Amino acid sequence: MALLELDSVTKTFGRLRVLKDVSLRVESGAIDGVIGPNGAGKSTLFNLVTGVYRPDSGEVRLDGVRIDGLAAYRIARRGVARTFQNLRLFGYLDAVDNVLIGENPRLRATLADSLAHSPRERREERAARERAHALLEFVGLPPESRAQFARNLPYGMQRRLEIARALASEPRVLLLDEPAAGTNPTEKEQLAGLIRAIRDRGVAVLLIEHDMGLVMRLCERIAVLDYGEKITEGNAADVRMDPRVVEAYLGPEDSAVSRGGARDA
Amino acid sequence: MIYLYAFGTVAAIVAAARFASPRITRILVIGGTLALLAAPWIVRNDASLNAMVDIALYVVLALGLNVTVGYAGLLDLGYAAFFAIGAYTYGLLASPQFDLHLPFWALLPLAAGLAALFGLLLGTPTLRLRGDYLAIVTLGFGLIVPQVLQNLTKYTGGPNGVSALDIPSFFGRSFGTGATAYYFVTLAAVVGVIAIVTNARDSRLGRAWMAIREDELAAAHMGVNTTGAKLAAFALGAAIAGLAGVVFAAKLSLVSPDLFGFQVSVLILSMLVLGGMGNVAGVVVGAIVLGLVNGTILPQIDGIVNGVLHTSVDLTNYNFFIYGAILVLLMLFRPEGLLPNRERRAELRAAAPTEGPA
């Protein structure tokens, strides 16, 4: 049984079918990727898994238990964490608080504990704060930037902070939505190292990338989406050679120009 | 004397916030506590002490509204309704109205609980609403509650309300007709409420509120139960207002619908805006300043203004004109409030460079 399974998931918005019969499996300990041109349905896929939308048909299972249709916060609590394509940090909170909010599912303090600031709650808070610093260390956010508002951090740091925040709940699987967007080649290299380190912590990673390079280097299995359908799946070498993938990215030889970047899920 | 106290407290809070040195803060806290505890013997004027109780009640109310509006970012324009619910709980259950004479101390938690329940009642259907829409619904709630109290004449005494409420007692000793006992009860309420709201702010619940205020969708994806956290914000804010309502009703020995109108909600919200939303010290300062303007300064300068200008205006009727002017000036020169927290300051000054630590 795979850790995360999508079983012929379909989603339409009005008359637009964004995902059609997509099945996907992420094994524990894996780094898997989903690629595809703009508008292929990659982000919608993530939104379905994390509870933003519910699928019209098909199932999403975590460890064999259905999670489709659950509220987003319940899915997060079961061990699915994510980042966002266009960073959604809590801009006016500092880096540590951002991570502490990510830790929320792990904390046990009740309403009464919180209001009374009970010894139990104090112990838990102290431990949570230590873990937050350890996580920020892990993603490489230096101590001097941790008291800054998230929005004032440099872009690369914001990306790392978002990953730390997602890891704070100790998820089973981490969904990264274009983590390399807007980063330079050096940062991409560091990011690849970070993603491997995350996998080594025992968190399965599912990566969406628009850009093929990182995915090809990192991912064990790659699924390719085009127009909402999974056109192929395999390891990097298979996918690279697959004529359907070449066509999806470059277009058939006679219409190479017509497939622009205007579509976006 | 009341001016001395009000300005002294404000100055102490501002100084503590400015210097941010633990030693200075400790001296200010100890000195302030002693001065506040000795107030009934220093002020010695029951009317002034009474005005101080009113100001302290405003502080409690402002701290409660700050939970909903300042922390969780849920704009509540009908906050006075919860105040009314607390006050009427005392008015109906400790008065000749039904010949029920439940003790003050039992009604405090009961009223807080009842107000919290109404907080949930208002919170549940409005969970999906944000910003303007939420403001309109809460505004409606704030108008409905006094209206209902006014029209349920059979139970609530209608527009006249209920009077001759029981005088509370403490271990058999009556509070009497002076303000001293109420002063200590209210002071204790201020201290207790400050402790509770700061604990809440620094807990996972407080962080959940701030996460919701910043980005509700992202908060949900981090496993924050946004529904629960928002309801908790409504309920806690409401419970604090209910508590204040009981003390208010007992002190006045009267409840009537017109005491809890829209203008009360606006006044309390103005205190938050003036002082600095989201920051406990700021909210306390805002409540003291506007409470003083509302209860003491306006009635007192009436005579002076009319004497000088040979007019006969009742300045207390222009109170909203004056708050409006204060708020407009504030928005022009210090939009984040007198003592903001650092998020708000940064947010509202995003374009301008920040000067010094807040």
Let me know the average pLDDT of chain B. Answer: 89
**What is the approximate shape of chain A?**
globular
The strand line-up of the biggest sheet of chain B is 1-2
In what range is the share of β-strand residues of chain A?
Answer: 15-25%
* Residues in helices of chain A, as a percent range: 25-40%
| Total count of strands of chain B | 6
The strand line-up of the biggest sheet of chain A is: 6-7-8-3-9-10
Multimeric state: heterodimer
What class do helices, strands and sheet pairing of chain A give?
alpha/beta
- Count of alpha/pi helices of chain A: 10
The end-to-end distance of chain B, rounded to whole angstroms, is 30 Å
Shape of chain B: globular
What letter string, H or E per element, gives the SSE order of chain A?
EEEHEEHEHHHHEHEHEEHH
Radius of gyration of chain B: 20 Å
- List unreliable stretches of 5+ residues of chain B: 352-358
| Rounded Rg of chain A | 19 Å
Q: How would you describe the overall organization of this protein?
A:
- The complex is a heterodimer of chains A (265) and B (358).
- Chain A has a 6-stranded mixed beta sheet, with helices on both faces. In chain A, strands 2-1-4-5 form a 4-stranded antiparallel beta sheet, with helices on one face.
- Chain A has 10 helices and 10 strands.
- In chain A, β9 (221-226) and β10 (229-234) form a beta hairpin.
- Chain A is an alpha/beta fold and 265 residues long.
- By secondary structure, chain B is mainly α.
- Chain B has 16 helices and 6 strands.
- In chain B, the strands form 3 sheets. In chain B, strands 1-2 form a two-stranded antiparallel sheet.
- The longest helix of chain B is centred in the last third of the chain and has 30 residues, at 280-309.
- Chain B is globular.
- Mean pLDDT of chain B is 89; it is low at 352-358.
- Chains A and B meet through α2, α3 and α4 of A and α9, α10, α11, α12 and α16 of B.
